[in-house]
Design goal:
single chain; about 325 residues; seven-stranded mixed sheet; 12 helices; globular; disordered N terminus
Amino acid sequence: MPGSAASARRMSFGQATVDAMRIAMREDDRVIVLGEDISWGGNFGQFRGLADEFGPDRVIDMPISEAIIMAVGVGAAVTGLRPVASMSFVEFTLGAMDEIVNQASKFRYMFGGQVSVPLVLRASDGILRSSAGQHSSSLEGLFTHLPGLKVVAPSNPADAKGLLRAAIADDDLVVYLENKRITAKRGPSPTGDHLVPLGSAALRRSGSDLTILSYSAMALEAEVACRRLSEEGIEAELIDLRSLVPLDLEAVLDSVRRTGRVVVAHEAWEFGGFGAELAASITSRAFDDLRAAPVRVGAAQAPIPFSPPLERAVVPGADEIVGAARRLMTA
């Protein structure tokens, strides 16, 4: 199923997800789409053209109620369909947490494996052009905390397509996080069908001095940081996790055991974030291989401001990753 590099072409992250949706819907008529205003393409064009091809029975505009969207999605999933539910901004999932936490994530366990919930929840997270406190959050830490949910956060068009295809094919609820800042970013993506298995990290850059772990938009900031560090004589290895649950812990530990130092970077708040779990997992499993304690880079403990300078002060980027790496190398 994976497409070859020879058949790749440049497209935006958003276009790659449309490509994945179109392939899945043509292959399996059980795949449907639910959400607000998606018949005209969605907030970021991530469903553009699907209504024209598949019609209102499979691309369904829903009322402005995330609870209803998720309730209908869960019901459709357990009765045989494979819904993709759009929550638009990730904060809007908070209006459907009962359906996510108490229903979808627990059904397989509560019914002894007799039912599954093959549902994909798509939500746009992260900062973009001063979207302010209610439209700029990164909430993956909420979802990774919950048993029964799978969580992915791609950083480029090829992974966006491949992970969405894998999420739609999965028999459990998958939270698919698509960062707003990279929806329009272009890159190579296979033109044919393409699958990236859940639970597989990607080695973006090899290095021997330290490991940087990241995902989503922050993985792009980490690539910039790696280039800057290399100019200073520090060779950083970059692991793009892309799948948070299931997590490719083997790839993480293999890298950390070789470099002995690790920086974990994400756009979400540092306190209680997914990076804390990564740091704890690494410390408990590779303590003897560490030359210094893991360092986390995350957002300051404050709502995301509207003001561009204040937003930049709260949300980290390449500068903060470079600073953390420098400190780590002298520890």
